[in-house]
Design brief:
72% helix; 6 helices; 165 residues; mainly alpha; single chain; two-stranded parallel ribbon
Length: 165
Amino acid sequence: MAACAFGATQPLHAQKFVLIDMEYILKNMPSYERANEQLNQVSRKWQAEVEALNTEAQKLYKTYQSEAVFLSAEQKKEREEAIVAKEKEAANLKKKYFGPEGELFKKRESLMAPINDEIYNAVKDICETRGYSLVLDRASDSGIIFASPKIDISSEVLAKLGLGQ
């Protein structure tokens, strides 16, 4: 049993572990900043569209409230349906743009995929050159309690990306 435990831990001593800080790397990548700005612009545009529909629904409701006493039952029903339809249209548009699989998610994925690939390839090249076996991201919630700054290769990744400081 002791031999199995020793044999299982033996390869760990030969392993080389390093860290990167993805937040630091991304913050220093102009392409990431440009992608974020594009996402912010499209998000503001889409949010304005949703808000415009909500405003229309509010106007319809206020008009309905002020004219309700003069409307027949049929007219009231038509107006109420128009208000509900406008609110539903706004909700559907919001879901289309901002939902879990919405347009903003797809846009983020399409803009970030090339950036993530570029970082991955730089990290992979460094690891293959230096013989690193494992790279952890210190910026994520990975449960790292302590990490020596000596094993953080974030600056080296930036240099590999041509963004050295």
